[in-house]
């Protein structure tokens, strides 16, 4: 992968943005799946949207310097939490991560490599494997017309 790696004063290459609201049941798995990525030049910005479950306690357990936690004083709703995360991002690329999802270990590595190799592309995504749904694998639209229509 031909990615210029940052020095200690450089911004991260990827800002992984994770809004969360009462996702304590899944949160550790979601966070750990990002922290275990093969590509490690990222920041993980977690916006706790006024959770009333054990989310704040779980977040307090993480001491990784790549994590930034923003706590909203009350539930403001998903759009506000997402916009708050986006405003805090400093990376070259944005990777959205839901707090009840798990990223495969090479997700960021593959997505950054693709974006670096294709500077004319503005957005990339990946397939979704549903754990609790009989539909299994969901592959998003792959061509420009289908993406625009979606």
Describe the structure.
The protein has five helices and six strands. The protein has helices at residues 24-35, 55-60, 78-88, 107-117, 144-149; strands at 14-20, 42-49, 67-72, 93-96, 128-129, 137-138. The longest helix has 12 residues, at 24-35. The two termini are 30 Å apart.
Could you name the key traits of this structure?
globular; alpha/beta; 19% strand
Helices and strands in order:
Elements: E1 14-20, H1 24-35, E2 42-49, H2 55-60, E3 67-72, H3 78-88, E4 93-96, H4 107-117, E5 128-129, E6 137-138, H5 144-149
Parallel strand pairs: 1-2, 1-4, 2-3
Antiparallel strand pairs: 5-6
Per DSSP, the total helix count is: 5
Strand proportion: 15-25%
How far do the termini sit from each other? 30 Å
Strand tally is 6
Biggest pleated-sheet summary: 4 strands, parallel
Give the overall form: globular
Strand order of the largest sheet: 3-2-1-4
| Gyration radius, rounded | 16 Å
Percent helix: 25-40%
How are helices and strands ordered from N to C? Answer: EHEHEHEHEEH
Report the mean per-residue pLDDT as an integer. 89
| Class per helix and strand makeup | alpha/beta
Indicate the low-confidence ranges by residue numbers: none
């Amino acid at each position: 992968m031909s990615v210029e790696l940052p020095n200690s004063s450089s911004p991260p290459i990827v800002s992984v943005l994770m809004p969360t609201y009462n996702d304590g049941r899944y949160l550790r798995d979601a966070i750990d799946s990002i922290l275990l990525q093969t590509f490690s030049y990222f920041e993980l910005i977690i916006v706790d949207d006024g959770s009333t479950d054990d989310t704040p306690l779980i977040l307090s357990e993480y001491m990784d310097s790549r994590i930034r936690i923003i706590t909203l004083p009350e539930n403001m709703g998903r759009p506000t939490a997402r916009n708050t995360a986006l405003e805090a991002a400093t990376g070259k690329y944005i990777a959205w991560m839901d707090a009840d999802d798990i990223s495969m270990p090479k997700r960021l590595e593959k997505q950054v490599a693709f974006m670096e190799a294709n500077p004319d592309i503005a957005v990339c995504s990946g397939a979704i494997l549903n754990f609790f749904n009989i539909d299994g694998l969901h592959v998003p639209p792959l061509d420009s017309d289908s993406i625009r229509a979606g």
